[in-house]
Structure formats: structure tokens, C-alpha cells
Amino acid sequence: xxxxxxxxxxxxxxxxxxTITSWPSGRTDLRNAGANWVDNxxxxxxxxxxxxxxxxxxxxxxxxxxTLVAAFATDKS
Length: 77
Hints:
Helices cover about 25% and strands about 15% of the residues. It has about 80 residues and is α+β, with helices and mostly antiparallel strands.
């Protein structure tokens, strides 16, 4: 997810206790929802029932794609 996409996870209470990034204007909302917001290009959070991969902006897409591939290419069985 990029830009404001992570903010769509606030209402279903998916970000509480998770490390995530977004466009900077989403920082306060995500923190208020219990997320650990970080200012990084590509963020993987495997804490919880699923893996979340997020980025801040479209310019971060190359780093986010690298994070995404690394997260899901690993055999977790």
C-alpha cells in the first residue's frame, strides 16, 4: 500500500500494534489508531495474522517492490 492506502486499515482496526508507513499526512491518524508509524521507503510488518507492506509515496515504488518481493519470496513454512 502506498500514500494514503494504509489509512483505509484504520477503521477495521488492522494497524494497532503494527509498524507501517504512509504519506506524512497519515502519520497522526495511524499513530492514533495504535500503529507504529515510521518514515521509510518500504516497510514490512509480519507482526500479526498477516504481512503488511507499505510505502510513503509513488517515488518509493522501487524500494517498496523490493520489500514486497523479499517479504513474500521467503518460505515461512
